[in-house]
């Protein structure tokens, strides 16, 4: 099993990161892989409800430069 934790704080190594690290340490004790992704400094566009992700059958946003596509695949 793998858990991807998203740190949305603008402070990459702030309190939110420390909390995520604490949770990650407990998960890793149970042999659960953890990846922390810092998104606090990224521009994340909201869903436009265009339905393109459903039509293209791969559940990826039609906005090609949307990093969320990569994050979801993790």
Automatic annotation (TrEMBL):
Pfam family, one: FMN_red
Record-annotated NADPH-dependent FMN reductase-like domain positions: 1-73
Gene3D superfamilies, per the entry: 3.40.50.360
Record carries keyword Cytoplasm: no
Keyword Flavoprotein: yes
A GO term for molecular function: oxidoreductase activity
Keywords annotated in UniProt: Flavoprotein, FMN
InterPro entries linked to this entry: Flavoprotein-like_sf, FMN_Rdtase-like_dom, ISF_SsuE-like
Protein name: Flavodoxin family protein
Natural source organism: Clostridium aciditolerans
Taxonomic placement: Bacteria, Bacillati, Bacillota, Clostridia, Eubacteriales
